[in-house]
Model the fold of this input.
Amino acid sequence: MSRLKGDHMAMDDSSRCAAAPSAAVGEEEECTNAVEEQRCVLDDSHKELRDDDFWRQIPAYADLSASEFHDHRFQSRNCVTSARKLRQVLGDRVPDSFYADVEAGVRGSTMSLRLSPYLLSLVDWDAPETDPIRTQFLPLASRFRPDHPELHFDSLNEQADSPVPGLIHRYHDRALLLALDTCPVYCRFCTRSYSVGLDTEGVEKVHFGATLERWEQAFEYIRQHPEIEDVVVSGGDMYNLRAEQVALLGNSLLDIDHVRRFRYATKGPAVLPQKLITDHDWVEAVASVAEEGRRRHKQVALHTHFNHASEITAITRQGLDRLLERGIIVRNQAVLQRGVNDDVQSMRRLIRRLSYLNVQPYYVFVHDMVRGVEELRTTLQTAIDLEKQVRGATAGFNIPAFILDTMGGGGKRHVHSHEQYDRDTGIAVFSSPVVRPGRRFFYFDPIHELGAEARARWADADERAGMINSARQAASA
Done:
């Protein structure tokens, strides 16, 4: 089968407008009215799911059949976990300088390296430096930017809201259960880099093992707090749980009367969709818990995490269709990242492709302030502008909320709800009247995105303190 055009290689707006058959305009013509302009921008490329033998471009996978490559056990057992293994897989597809860049990047990263063969095969290895999948999972030291001076490890202050190990109770009626601390792959930008994955050269992590004893502490806390109606089962990633563990967690929560709904959170469908097709016991466990929930008039959903349309292929659709057939609600939470999805066309295509597969685009998070990935963060204004540009691209219930999770534990706030935002200094101030009444919470744009005068002020500790204090006063005026 022929390869469909990769989304990261898509034409710009003007080229697409001229070339798209649905535009109803000539090759040299421009869109002449609002209807034609909308058709030009919103073509049907979101339906073009890659369905070729894309893995054969990788030397180590060139001789694998589709059934061999798309077995979840092959995917799990053959993840790339070091620059050395990357070289063994890619061979001479990239120069030695690239491997050296990765090796230095891994040394400077807060996250372990773990990349599935599926994701590795979707990278454009002719231009890996700018590829959106490489950007998210494979660090290049040459791309690093200095961390923001106001960045703090565990920037969302989750550990302060943790009454028992691995349970976070920040919102009145909701709790987050960190069931484990491992994932099928590791994202460079992980908010929970303080705990997820193996220890790295620069980080000794707080670990949450998948143990019944620890889970029972969390269940008991939830039982003793009848205000908790909503629980998120996350981690780490519940994709790494065995089927019987998935069932135990789910049924234990269903047995707590005041828990009315809960969500399994997993990036798995985006990074290893084969599991949804070939791991029948795991899918059956999720589906059985969801069915039991419906019998008890409780909602069980699955929240996943796609960031770019090129992560979604025909094999993704097969996996998600299995969940749809079993009546499982699937929602998506994306993270806004520079060079991945911070342009209008990429974000629109992601939202429409998810909608096409009946995955509800639920949230787009402004990138948290995480160590070692400053080059991935965007300004708050980027999120505000994107929200305006994607609204109307598809049905309203499939338009995500653009959200900022405030530093220091203020919780989630809509990007438009800031009390004060100075675009020159890059300082935004939010309030959180339900979660932390009376307090102010900050977000700081990347310093390298600011003007020269502001960058100089940020370099001076006294000036920095003065800018933050002025922003706090302005928000309270």
Q: What stands out?
A: The longest strand covers residues 436-444. The chain has 18 helices and twelve strands.
